[in-house]
């Protein structure tokens, strides 16, 4: 098959690796399922700004056994590959005809992790050296890759990622016997952190990772505990959460049996149109945003006895309801950080309120730069004194 036919298959399969951020209102960060150019992917890059990226696999062949993955070795699917030369040439031709912010490079594990990494690295090297491409390249690090391969991949990349998949070896071992959690996942994440952190040789490179939510029997508390530590200790720029939707029909996958039942037992859902796992993904993104933008700590979050977030309320609203002593917050005196604890008020609005009160006295809550829905959420928690 020609390059476009192969990329049609590979780009479709690349969508199993969804790095959407559906907890935000930015449509550029949301997953899409259709489109005539199926290999184009709307994305917001780590350093800000959004656009269209070519996202594809170099190969959908894989020797790994990850039970949640439709491309694992034992699955019956149409396999294909493209060469680094062909993919680089196709991308450069594409860039010349339409505006793209970059390319997302990933691959199944062809034989060994380092063999797959060699092909990813070669693609980046061809783009940088032969075509003098200076745009955005995001490279997915293959679990089990050698330190040398990881360093080479980072050299040609604007951003790199390695999916942590689950919070801990206990959960990971239920999904894969071919990958070693401590060495292949955690060890590689630490190396990426060392190479890209402040003072490292590649500090300009952004780092991301992702959890598969609901494939194993992990709790929200465990996911968010790992999330906070990855921000604080490994200094990753962004973490993503991808809801496992089931449907592979394998009863050996913990999430295949469990992922709906546990949540449906715990909550009476008011979101009947959304699957519990998608709503769970949404709540995890909201909690993640509280870590990154609102100054919340892990201890600020509330969980049920089984470690789940409340599906019926966003975690910021839960905190407000559990901490009535914090309110009302003074519009005239509160710091931006205090204002951001108010439901309906985010970082931008908090800064605008502080700016407005410096320009002229605020005497009524209706003077605040709030939408109708934000006003309805915030009014009960604010004071004009």
Notable characteristics:
alpha/beta; DNA polymerase, domain 1; 2 domains; two-stranded parallel sheet; 385 residues; TIM Barrel; seven-stranded mixed β-sheet
Structural commentary:
- The chain is globular.
- Helix content is 38%, strand content 11%.
- α3 runs parallel beside α4 and α7 (220-232) packs parallel to α10 (276-293).
- With 385 residues, the protein is an alpha/beta fold.
- The chain has helices at residues 3-14, 84-97, 113-130, 147-155, 169-172, 181-196, 220-232, 254-258, 261-266, 276-293, 315-322, 336-339, 347-359, 372-378; strands spanning 40-44, 50-57, 102-106, 136-140, 159-161, 206-213, 238-243, 329-330, 382-383.
- The strands form 2 sheets. The chain has a 7-stranded mixed beta sheet with strand order 1-2-3-4-5-6-7.
- It is built from 14 helices and 9 strands.
- The protein starts with a helix and ends with a strand.
- The protein has 2 domains: 3-320, Aldolase class I (TIM Barrel); 323-383, DNA polymerase, domain 1 (Orthogonal Bundle).
Brief description of this entry?
With 385 residues, the protein is of the alpha/beta class.
**For the CA atoms, what is the radius of gyration?**
22 Å
Helix % is 25-40%
- Counting DSSP H or I runs of 4 or more residues, the number of helices is 14
The CATH level-2 architecture of the largest domain is identified as Alpha-Beta Barrel
What is the CATH class of the largest domain? Answer: Alpha Beta
Largest sheet: 7 strands, mixed
Poorly predicted segments = 27-38, 256-274
Order of helices and strands: HEEHEHEHEHHEHEHHHHEHHHE
The largest beta-sheet arranges its strands as: 1-2-3-4-5-6-7
Q: What name goes with the CATH superfamily of the largest domain? A: Aldolase class I
Which outline best applies? globular
CATH topology value of the largest domain = TIM Barrel
Total discrete domains: 2
Number of strands: 9
**Category by helix and strand content:** alpha/beta
Arithmetic mean pLDDT: 83
**Content of β-strand:** 5-15%
Q: What's the end-to-end separation, in Å? A: 71 Å
